[in-house]
Structures are given as C-alpha cells and as structure tokens.
Amino acid sequence: MGRQPCCEKIGLKRGPWTLEEDHKLMFFILNNGIHCWRTVPKLAGLIRCGKSCRLRWINYLRPDLKRGALSELEENQIIQLHARLGNRWSKIAAHFPGRTDNEIKNYWNTRIKKRLSLLDIDPLTHKPIEAVIKSDVKKEEISQTSEEQEKNNLEDKSWEKIALGDFSLMDFRKQDDLEMLWKGFHLESIANPIVERDDNFSPSFSTKDHSLNPSVGETSSMQEQRVPVDSANSILSWDYFNCLEDFFFFQNRH
DNA sequence: AAAATGATCAACCGCAAGACC
DNA sequence: CGGTCTTGCGGTTGATCATTT
C-alpha cells in the first residue's frame, strides 16, 4: 500500500492566495499557534491543504519576514555559503534572519547564477568554467612535469594574494596576465571562506520553533545562536569579483 | 499597438527523515 | 520493529509583469 496523500486534494483550492485567505490564516495562527498543519485549514476555515497553508505562512505571512531585495552583502554571503553548502537552501537561509529558503533559492536561480555565468564561473563548482574543463582533462593525464607544477604554484599564489585583498600583484592593464591568472584560479581551495558549522550550528530556520509562538517570532534566542558569517572568517572578498567585472566591462568598451 | 521573449517569484510536487503508535 | 503520519526540503512549474521586437 502506498503512502496516503498529506490531505484529500479533491475540492481543495489551489493557486494564488486571496487577501481573505491570508487574513483567515494569519488570524488563526496568531490566535492559536500551530500544533498540526493538517488541521490548520479546517480550523481556520480554509479550503486548502495543510501543506499549502504552511508554505504560505513560512514564505509570506510570518511576521518576522524581511521584505525587499537582498543587499549586496547578503548576496555575497549567499555565494560564499553556497560554495560551502551547495544547494542546501534551508541551511543557507538559516544564516539570514527573515529570509526564506524559497526566496534565496529563487534569488540564486534567477540572479546569482547568471552573474557567475557572466564571469565564466561555474555556479555548481564555483570554479572558472575553463578551469573545470581543464581539470577534467587533467584527470586523464598520468603525470605532470615539475616545471609545470612550479608554474601552477605561482599562479595559485597570485590568486591567493588577490583573494586576500592584495591587488599589488595585479596589473589589470594587461589582459594576458589576468587571463593567465584566471585560468589558474581555483576558488574552492583558496577561498574556503566559511567554517563548516553544519553540525554544531543552531537549528535551521525551523518553522516549528517560532510558529508555535508566532508573536514572539525568533528574534531573541534563535538569533543569538546564529553566527555571523560575513567578514570574520571570509578570506575571499566579493570586491575582487566586482573588480574583475569592472575590468572586463572596461576592456569591452575599448 | 500587438506579439514575442525574458525575468521573477509564488506555489506545487514528490521525496525523505523523524516522530509516533 | 514496522507501518503510518507529519513536516521540511529541494526541484520544478506556471502565472504575471516587464522589456524587446
């Protein structure tokens, strides 16, 4: 016997929520809290499934939601976190109070992915696309000469400097140099910007926690457990991406 | 002005994990 | 210990709005 559906779907309303539905759900949750999503629609007088109500609450109605576009700082943090955590959107969202996993996932898919692609960075691996292709080829090669190794080390060192914010080595007027470094760039090994906190980190953006007492939200205790991930542990600055972006823009104009 | 195309994001779906009995 | 239920997650879809042709 297969699993039963989360709810009886026949006759249930689907699609965009109306203002009236939002009011009903919000009024119910703020007055009663959530004990079982399955029972919420019935008790709140909604013709929706519990899953739909849960999603609506988490992604839209929660009082602690942060509205508006993500800041550049947040965007940079998302990129760094994605490099460490991959597509674990709920884990990433846990670092951004008031933001939802859905929001961050959408932002990644519609904006950051494109931005990285424009910079020839593979959004999956966070490595330059050409380097990814090259590394695949290299896997098939049995050995590498010491001379080549020495050259690669030098290239890596240069990127390390840049990642650390030391632009003194870079002469952006020489595109050849830039391309040479670009090819040798290995983001993952250099950047490693965020200490893995998966296991000891605060519970994810659990709706259970704050939804049981939505008026309180998660402002106090949960936020205290969160560890800011911005500058402290970050070796790689997004500034240098912007710098490259500006550089290419400048080059294309001339 | 209309059609085509692209961008955005809310909402849905199926699956997996954990809780419960 | 196994079956069922509930919740949460990540991938995907499709409606809507904006921009381009």
Automatic annotation (TrEMBL):
Domain Myb-like: 9-61, 62-112
The HTH myb-type domain, residue ranges: 9-61, 62-116
Alphabetically ordered keywords of this record: DNA-binding, Nucleus, Repeat, Transcription, Transcription regulation
Keyword check for Lyase: no
InterPro entries found in the cross-reference section: Homeodomain-like_sf (IPR009057), Myb_dom (IPR017930), Myb_TF_plants (IPR015495), SANT/Myb (IPR001005)
Pfam family, one: Myb_DNA-binding
PROSITE patterns: HTH_MYB, MYB_LIKE
Any one GO MF annotation of this record: transcription cis-regulatory region binding
Subcellular locations according to the entry: Nucleus
Region (Disordered): 206-225
Record's compositionally biased regions (Polar residues): 206-224
Organism: Kingdonia uniflora
Keyword Nucleus part of the UniProt annotation: yes
Main location: nucleus
Protein name: Uncharacterized protein
GO biological process, one term: response to other organism
GO terms for cellular component: nucleus
Coiled-coil regions, chain positions: none
